[in-house]
Amino acid sequence: MPKRDETYMTITAAKGFEKSNAPFELFDQWLKDAEKSEPNDPNAMSVASVDENGMPNVRMVLLKEFDETGFVFYTNFESAKGRELLASRKAALNFHWKSLRRQVRIRGLVEIVPDEQADAYFASRARDSRIGAWASQQSRPVESRFAFEKAIAKYAAKYAIGEVPRPPYWSGFKIIPLEMEFWHDRPFRLHDRIVFKRPTPSDQWTKSRLYP
Q: Is domain 4-123+168-209 given the CATH code 2.30.110.10 in the classification?
């Protein structure tokens, strides 16, 4: 685990912050650090959305891909988060790496990934996970565990031979950030916070420091 002074230098160093892709480079650096120190799922993130009544909703998912265009995860589009993100096309993400005392908050716009990209990722999943995507009516009531297992058996038999195709309701969301905030712990709760913002995805980032 990096010492706190080393973490401080990482976020406050001026080098590179003037570049248009600076927040993505910093995120990439922090994620790689987390992959070395987090005991479980360094790519875990919370995804926040709102329902049709304006009530907030949040849950944990796994980041599967990211680049300078955005952050991608995959899900059932008929689930609660799927319906909410399709309706609003806006989302917030949060990464918290306890071992590093670091956090990244992201807010932005939501796009659906191309079918070819979703197909490629779905094909890379374990076969049982692909069967589960067909069997699970995610977020909807199920009468018993047995009913779910019966659905799993049904689709396992249906796709016993050959490839398991991607369900039409299963795909990926890309969150295109308009704001990325990097936080890390400092002694006596005098934390460090740097935020990058841009009005639209085509604009340049601006950087500012926030009070903890």
A: yes
Catalytic member of 101, 105, 189, 209: 189
Q: Is 84 exposed, middle or buried (0-12, 13-18, 19+ CB in 10 A)?
A: buried
Please confirm, yes or no, whether 102 is among the known catalytic residues.
no
DSSP annotation of 187? G
pLDDT digits (tens, 9 = 90+) for 77-130: 999 999 999 999 999 999 999 999 999 999 999 999 999 999 999 999 999 999
Task: Check if the beta carbon of residue 29 is closer than 8 Å to that of residue 16.
Answer: no
Two structure tokens written together for 77: 């589009």
CA–CA dist 62, 76 (Å, integer): 14
pTM of the model: 0.88
- Output the six-digit token pair for 13: 């160093």
